[in-house]
Amino acid sequence: MNVLEALKNRHSTRVYKPDPVAPEVIREIVEAANRAPSWANTQPWEVYVAGGATLDNLRKRYLENFQKEVPPHPDIALPTSWPEVHQERMFQLGAKRFAALGIARDDQEARRKTTEMNFNFFGAPHVVFLCMDRNLSPWSLFDLGSFAMSLMLAAQHKGLNTIPAVMLVAYPELIREELKIPENLSIVIGIALGYGDQENIHNHFVTPRRNIDEFLKLV
Fold first, then answer.
1. Hey, which CATH number is domain 3-80+117-214, 3.20.20.30, 3.40.50.720, 3.40.109.10, 3.60.20.10?
2. Could you tell me how far CA 32 lies from the centroid of its own chain?
3. 0.90 exceeded by the pTM?
């Protein structure tokens, strides 16, 4: 698979098979992502990959928090508002996805079950947690974004699936405790990793993209 094919075919996978990924494959993916660019070669990423009993225990604790309606509080603060055009895209995404799943607008129980999938880590056998030193500036988040995309494309090349999701880092104190992550690191984002269950209806929906003429300015 070449890079353009990987970019075209990569999409957020929301249901996974339980089959674990071989450690050597995970290492190859991370090694490839390690070529991502960064400001003055600072390479700010610290990478923790949870799987097995560690992830199972974390999954259980996340679901308990979800059932108790504990508000998410990631290390990187959630936005309090969005510009109108971005908010509209989010609304349209939700409407189209729930329509594809056959979930009615007023079916709150089904919508809650769909949200709960985030806190179950989508059933993925592994979650990659990307961290960086708390003293770094927001510019280093750009570098982590480059690393994250590189990792997801490398995973695609290996026949794996991914989804980056903020709710995977909803409760950083639990992640820090289970994975022994030091306090000096911010837990920035989680990426579920594994072999997607392509038969599951949740994986049939692919988010739409803007026409490039809406945002591309060739001058």
1. 3.40.109.10
2. 18
3. yes
